[in-house]
Amino acid sequence: MEDEADLEYMGLSLSRIGFDCTMGYLKGGMSLWLNEGLPYGSLPLMSPAKLKKLDSERLALLDVRTTDEWKRGRIANSKNVYVGHLAERLVEVSTEQPIVTVCNTGMRAGIAASVLLRSGISVFNLLGGTQAWEAYKYPIKNE
Q1: Is 103 left (phi over 0), alpha (psi -120 to 50) or beta?
Q2: Phi-psi category of 120—alpha, beta or left, where left has phi over 0 and alpha has psi -120 to 50?
Q3: CB-hemisphere CA count at 13 Å for 16?
Q4: Tens digit of each residue's pLDDT (9 = 90 or more) over 39-65
Q5: Which CATH class is domain 45-135?
Q6: Tens of pLDDT along 72-130?
Q7: What is the domain partition of the chain in residue ranges?
Q8: Phi (first) and psi of residue 92, to 5 degrees
Q9: What is the largest CA-CA distance in the chain?
Q10: For residue 93, how many other CB atoms are within 10 A of its CB?
Q11: Cβ neighbours of residue 89 under 8 Å, at least 6 residues apart?
């Protein structure tokens, strides 16, 4: 974090998506972590074009937006579990095939993917979320 304002903003951002009990932060950021030679992982990304090409039977789509957002427009065959409730609702997530997490832009989906990765679930984050999906002119299902 650069300063106290960044820390407050991050805390507020996390609480808005259901993470109300932030225990700390990485002082010095990822640059310091990497410079110390500490271990890290990475999150696989999937482009909208690649997702469109792949057989939907081989992937599970997990939309982690609010139910209202999901109803207003989603990728067909996506399951909705809000990111703030995902940790407590993991039993509802199928692990039979890799999961692609989806939100509006990819930020909440990245957090959700981290939750799934920690649980040992194979996961990708949809790059750019539904905004990118729609930019490609791919179909969106509405309720």
Answers
A1: beta
A2: left
A3: 9
A4: 888 889 999 999 999 866 689 999 999
A5: alpha beta
A6: 999 999 999 999 999 999 999 988 889 999 999 989 999 999 999 988 899 999 999 99
A7: 4-35, 45-135
A8: -85, -10
A9: 49
A10: 18
A11: 81
